[in-house]
Amino acid sequence: MSFTLALVGRPNVGKSTLFNRLVGKRLALVDDQPGVTRDLREGEARLGDLRFTVIDTAGLEEATDESLQGRMRRLTERAVEMADICLFMLDARQGVTPADEVFAEILRKKSAHVLLAANKSESNASDAGVLEAYALGLGDPIRISAEHGEGMADLHAVLMPLA
Ligand code: GDP
Ligand code: MG
């Protein structure tokens, strides 16, 4: 049995970087629902011996008539419905921002299975942000650097029991 992991969080926290690291060139499927294709990318992830489906919530960066908050909410709720687990990503260098709080609220309300990742943690400039992340009440943050591939063993350790 495998699982589906959705990467959620505000623009620029590193979701696509992690998606690309997990999926490599194996990007395969896209959702065929109107309006969703552009916004949700699905791929087959590999992390050590684990194989699972990963969803990247994209499209928040593009300007449209819909407010960013509205799109964040809609996309995140959709991703939560599709996924068994959400990996809520923060930029640890920036700490917890008001936009992050909005996501945390959506995820708490949806009572999804949520894991917290403090990304961009490759330097100790991220320590304060990691500490802030504990206050979200979404469990212990996993320190990762999607860009540098750090913390992947810790991510593996957290996901392994779910596989
Ligand atoms: P998304 O909008 O959440 O999909 O974020 P992206 O994956 O597009 O990343 C946004 C920016 O953060 C890009 O310039 C990435 O290169 C950078 N980035 C992603 N992960 C890391 C990381 O672990 N460390 C650092 N320093 N930068 C990162
Ligand atoms: Mg992206």
TrEMBL record:
Transmembrane segments: none annotated. GTP 1 binds at residues 9-16, 56-60, 119-122. Residues 3-163 form the EngA-type G domain. GTPase that plays an essential role in the late steps of ribosome biogenesis. Associates with the 50S ribosomal subunit. Belongs to the TRAFAC class TrmE-Era-EngA-EngB-Septin-like GTPase superfamily. EngA (Der) GTPase family. This is GTPase Der. It comes from Aliiruegeria lutimaris. The gene is der.
